[in-house]
Specification:
The chain is of the alpha+beta class. Helix 8 packs across helix 11 and helix 8 packs parallel to helix 13 (312-318). The chain is globular and about 85 Å long. The chain starts with 24 loop residues before the first strand and ends with a strand.
Amino acid sequence: MALVYAHSPLVLPAFKYKAINEHDAIRLILLQPAADISARLECSIEHVNLSQYNEDLINHYTALSYVWGDATEKRDIVVDGCSLSITGNLDSALRHIRHTKDIIKIWADAICINQEDIQERGQQVQQMGTIYSIAVHTIIYLGEASAEIDDVLTLLSSVSTAGQTLLYLDHETSTIKNMPFETITNTIQAHILNKAWFNRVWVFQELLLSRDPWVQCGSNRVRWTDLCQLSRLASTPLLHQKPIRGSVFGLHNPLLPSLDSRGPRSSDAGYLEDMDIARREFQNYVIGHGEGNSLLALLTLRRGLGVTDARDMIYAHLGIATDNLTGNNHLKVDYQKPFLEVFTDIARYFLWKYNDFSILTCVEDDSVEIRRKRLPTWVPDWTSSKGHNLSDLPDNENQARTQTTGFHFFNLKDGKVRLKCKGTILAQVQIVGGNNLCFDDFSMDPVDAWNRSMMDVNLTESEWVADTDSYYRLIKELETFAGLSESRRNLSHIRGMDYPSCRDTFKTFKRIFRRMWSEEHALTVHPLALFCTLPFNCFLPYTDTEASLGELGSAHAFRNLLSGLRALNGRRLCFCGYDFSKGVGLSMTDTVRPQHLALVPQWTQGGDLICQMYGDSRYVVLRPVESRASLRRSEFIGMCYFNPPGQRRNQVETTDFLLQ
């Protein structure tokens, strides 16, 4: 239960900040002691140099990591005899942190940075990485404690103080000092992980950079490492059932589920473990061991987390990214730059750095009407959690990353930057399916029914694989599933979808299908979800041999398959056509006979164009806005999978696009 304090208004002059003149200077709070938690908060401000504290073995400060909370809930603190307004959450943190007898040196951004001075704010925020890395301790204040949190933190404090090692406690008892593992795990998941701190973007940098982080709820304070160790011990059975997939600092596998755009989930027993791994690996990277993560990888993982100022989605990750940003004035913390300029500059930086169009895969999955109001349509909005990052899906010949050249930027009067690049028009969208494909929202009953009908026990293995009736039944059901049954076009007439062309792939699909719905894996993904990706070879890189099919026996392969399918949720199948005789003269009003399929964003409509950027093998959907002889003004709709025209693609000429 939250404590209630007396908050009588202070009849004192307003506090006025003195300017910070030296490049490494910061302010520290000298928090005055009080025996009574309800006593008025009082402190003084001291100007110091970070270099001074970096070399001092005795005189140090503690950094505070917290969430500002409701900005309208104001409290007053006495600073050098004057009154300063702070948020209720900071007021609570300082009351619980202050000592009963001694002055404590604290760094807290809301007081130590003049929030009204935009130039100072930018300069100080740029030093936050150094501030947290030099601080001898960091207190992560989660808020006031519930009775459940108090019980667990008190238990943990007593165990740690007694010098007992949690890893050597007897698992067979399933208790720690008579507290069941289940109670500990439920408290951590339902009460601690649900605190707002875990959903804020800045705190990740603060945790990774901290030498010695402590977690505090109310007056109870424990070491971060001890809390993670307790969580690991109490949730061991759950961790065995749901293995942790990599680390945020593993570039080979950047998809860390607990740290992605969905934020912490109460059912994710490995959440604290994942964060602790990220911190330890970053600390190793700082001292020269291991690899760090690029700015693009961090933004992809962390997109959509809570920020009060959208620009902080970028600024909060600059201090922990491995990118060499020295001398890059476009990526310095500058709160005088508007949101539009900051997000456009970061997109331009990624284009220059990687020399390809991979940044387009990060554009959020939202309608172009919504996106164009905020940013150019080719610029990702990292505050949105609606991103479909297709670059994280299994690579194949249609999705390989390649380098490109020849893009230019044009600044227009509306403040938005246009991206000029060369590309090829491959097809025009003719008919878009009426249903969004939903690949994981299936209950077990229809999946089991499908399983039984597909696995006809009356057929031998060879007869079952060669059964063409099941193929055409799949075709018809897929047309209904995708909302194409009323289009007067038959999927089996599309090039590559007729049975002779698709026979070998379909045989492979059926063998994969049989393995997927075995008792060992029991994946609850409808077979139509897998089948509709056949024309694009998205997730079937296996040949029809026992050796390659054996690769599907691993849980890792199935998890990748499942993740890939779910990443395509919300997309639509569409018919599209092309006319090479018209080349770059193809216009929105031209109609050609549909010959191919594409798996496109749900916002795609008839007349949109499926294209490739020059030097890049990925497929994109563009919406023509205006066409001239030498330039096509277009809006970026999203990435897509396309069943390509094949050998005639080389006959198509390139054209210039101006993405707006």
